[in-house]
Amino acid sequence: MIFTPVINLDAASSVAQINQGCVPGLGRGPGSKNILQSPRVDKTLKILQCNINGISTQALRVKLDQLLDLAERLSAQIVALQETKLRKTTLLKADEDTDMEIQGISFVWRDRSIKVFNVYHPPNNKQLQDNFNNITGENIIILGDLNAKHPMWGCATQNTRGNELVNLVDDGGFIVLNDGSPTHSSYSYNTSEALDVSIISPDLQPLCNWSVLNNIDSDHRPILLEINRKQVLEFLQGKLGCL
């Protein structure tokens, strides 16, 4: 597992901060910078996640432009990308015995020290191992595509990795934000699944609003995670059944 505020933005899974519509190191805007600074202190923290499924050619970078335009319109401070398929880079592996790629950043937002982990695991027979056991504490956000299927987050079927992820989530006391909405469409099989997951520590649940957005030129749909203190009141109203 890797947890550092210094991120290689050209890795196969990237966490990038939006800065005036530019993602450093991805060929748009100023020159490459590998230090991800803390987001500005806004009323609402907005995090956009998406498996972009390749931006290694000029044609595929159209998807990146679409995603960045979306992030700019939404005023998202952080973008978490998976499966960029970029070359000439050092991949960040969680462990020598796993294909999981994981990156992390830590920043302070409204007096909270928040840790965001960006993860990707390709569809193969390798297990997730116990990498999630090393992610503990409060104010934790885990975003990504683990190719794990389970009804808990909206899949019609379940696979071994899905069962494994459910156990890791339960053991860690985490909460899956997914509401069952599909996040991935297979054009070959004409099916839709919820493959992209958003997992948080329970202390953040009252602050979070989660939604799947309209499609871009990818087989995965973007997901917006909003963290706002106003959500606490809405959460309590829902729990108490009051207006």
UniProtKB/TrEMBL annotation:
- InterPro entries, alphabetized: Endo/exonu/phosph_ase_sf, Endo/exonuclease/phosphatase
Q: Which Gene3D superfamilies match?
A: Endonuclease/exonuclease/phosphatase
Range of residues in the leader sequence: none
Ranges where the Endonuclease/exonuclease/phosphatase domain occurs? 114-223
Q: Which residues form a coiled coil?
A: 57-84
Q: Is Coiled coil among this UniProt entry's keywords?
A: yes
Output the Gene Ontology terms for molecular function.
catalytic activity
Q: Which UniProt keywords apply?
A: Coiled coil
Is Acetylation one of the keywords UniProt gives this record?
no
Q: What is this protein called?
A: Endonuclease/exonuclease/phosphatase domain-containing protein
